[in-house]
Amino acid sequence: MGEKPNHKAEIKAKMKNIDISDGVGKEEAVILAQNYLLDNGLDNLLVTSKPSVENSSIKEGYWLIIFPTIKSVRSTQGLEWGSFRVDKKTGKVVYLGEGPS
Length: 101
Fold this sequence. Notes:
It contains three helices and four strands, in the order H-H-E-E-H-E-E. The protein is an alpha+beta fold.
């Protein structure tokens, strides 16, 4: 029970405009993480339309993209998140897993 189909198509369309030759900006990092999420079937766990973006405090040179879990959006029991690290130079996306906020 993931995102609406048109939202998925919008993300896929935005991927065509990604240019990492000049590095990866904040908006590009979100699109790359959303695309990774969709390509790996994580849209059944995470809400692609509600990301939070931070500079990684653990490792320089990375964006940290955080998506709420579908379960936590529907719950009043607190939030859980799925986290992704996006390399600011290469655009490589790594799924860091889920956890509570």
